[in-house]
Sequence to fold (207 residues):
Amino acid sequence: MKRLILSVLAALYALVLAACSVPDMPGGEGSSRENRLGLPFEAAMTLTLDRLEAQGTVKRTSLGDWEAVFETPNSLSGVTLSFSRTDGTVTASYKGLTFSVPKSAYPVKAMLLCLINAVEENAAPEKLSGAENEGMLTVNGSLDSGDYTLTVDAEGLLSRFEMPGSKLDIRFTEVNVTGEAEEMTSAFPVPTEVTRPMQAGLIPTAP
Fold:
C-alpha cells in the first residue's frame, strides 16, 4: 500500500514538473509590440457603417489633426473633412470651398471622431498591449459612444477600427508613414462642427 502511494505521488510530481517546464506560447492575451500610432501617416480607408459604405483616404498629420477625403458614395464624393486640434473644429470642403458639414456626412463625421479619439488615446505609450492573432494585435477600449477594438499590424501601424455597438468597421490599407512622432502632451480638444452656411449644389447627390 505504501509503495502504491509513493508511486502515485511520484507520478503527480512528474506531471507538475512537466507543466512548469512548458514554455509560454506566443500571441494571445498579454502580447505587446512597438506603438507607432503616434506617427503621421496616410492610408486608403474603407468605412462600413451599418448599410453605408464609404471609401477614400485618411491622413493623420499631427496629434489630433486629421483629414479624410471621400471617393464614394456619390453623396460624399470629393468631400474633405478636416479635424483640427488647434481650434477643436471639424470643417468640410469641396473643390476648395469650405462649408458646414453636410447632413449626409453627419454619421461618418461622428464615427471618424470616435476613431480619432481612440487612436490618440492609445498613441502615447511606447508599447501597445493586447491580444495577438495571426500577426495582428487587437486593443480593446471604451469611449462615451461605446466600446471599440483597435487593430494594428506587425509594424504597429493602424489596420482596423471597430465599434460593434454602432455597426462600424473601418479598414486601412496602403498605410504609409509620412513623418516623425511629436511629443505627446495633454489630451487634445474634441473637434466640433464649424457652422458656416452650406452653398447649394456643392455636394453631388446619388442619381
Remarks:
- The first strand starts at residue 28 and ends at 34.
